[in-house]
Design brief:
The chain has 10 helices and 7 strands. With 288 residues, the chain is an alpha/beta fold. 49% of the residues are buried.
Length: 288
């Protein structure tokens, strides 16, 4: 896909996300929206061999048949709705399955589980995802495999100490096949990250841990794709992308507002959000 196609797909996923979260009457929509561009780029441009398969692999999530696929771990598991709509767009989930979110008996939970096709590991206990990703990356090195591991974390999640144990291990084992991404939207459930647990020293901190640290504009599909493609996977260093984003990105009345970390849309808000996104989709579709 080219940049314009990826931008259009991200908007289509954004519309679907709003509708799904509204129907479910629950979801972490603010963080979903801030990381959706990155997730769309990962699944439709960056990650290799990630396609629905008829046979489950011996390890990892169900429904992925290629053992040489790149792996994705959603460490900020409360933003699973963004992953669900991405997996639907990729063909892992049928629309009628995604429509069961929030309903009794659904396989779709409020955090990722391996009951869902395309999901590699159960995640969402904050701080655990990077440790899992380190283990995956070490396994690929030991097996002399070329697949990569990508881990998406939240910025509020950076207060978890286990992240830094994993960061030290990744440096120790020279995991240049590991890419961690921090969704840097500056807001967590209790407010601004700098008021709760300051982390503005991200670059210096992770550089000191021996990581290759890169800033990118996570609101810009062009910059996301350029940044991922510029990663040097042979430099013997694990990679950290600081993805500078906007909480609630793409819905004007949600952008930069902390309450939408776990806000529930009413009918009027849902219609307004969908209308706003549909207008962008119409413009983008005419520009293709």
């Amino acid at each position: 896909m080219n940049i314009k196609q990826l931008e259009l797909l991200a908007e289509q996923n954004r519309k679907r996300l709003v509708e799904v979260v509204y129907a479910a009457k629950a979801g972490h929509i603010g963080g979903d929206l801030s990381c959706l561009n990155v997730m769309t780029a990962l699944y439709f441009d960056v990650m290799k061999n990630v396609e629905p398969g008829s046979n489950p692999p011996q390890q990892g999530g169900r429904g992925q048949g290629n053992p040489d696929r790149d792996r994705f771990v959603l460490s900020k598991g409360h933003c699973v709705e963004a992953l669900y709509v991405t997996l639907e767009a990729k063909g892992f989930l049928a629309p009628e399955v995604l429509d069961t979110l929030g309903k009794y008996g659904s396989i779709l939970s409020g955090h990722p589980t391996i009951e869902v096709p395309g999901i590699e590991v159960n995640s969402g206990a904050l701080g655990h995802g990077l440790s899992i990703g380190v283990g995956m990356a070490i396994a690929a090195k030991m097996d002399k495999k070329q697949w990569k591991t990508y881990v998406l974390m939240g910025d509020g999640e950076q207060g978890e100490g286990s992240i830094y144990e994993a960061a030290m291990a990744a440096n120790r084992y020279h995991l240049d096949n590991l890419v961690a991404i921090i969704d840097r939207n500056h807001l967590q459930i209790s407010g601004d990250t700098e008021d709760v647990m300051p982390i503005d020293s991200i670059r210096e901190r992770w550089t000191a841990f021996g990581w290759d640290v890169i800033d990118m504009n996570g609101d810009s599909m062009e910059d996301i794709v350029r940044t991922f493609h510029a990663i040097d996977y042979d430099n013997k260093k694990p990679h950290l992308l600081i993805s500078h984003t906007t909480k609630g990105k793409g819905v004007s009345f949600m952008e930069g507002i902390a309450k939408w970390h776990h806000g529930v849309l009413n009918e009027e808000q849902c219609k307004a959000a969908v209308k706003e996104i549909e207008e962008r989709i119409k413009i983008m579709s005419n520009e293709k």
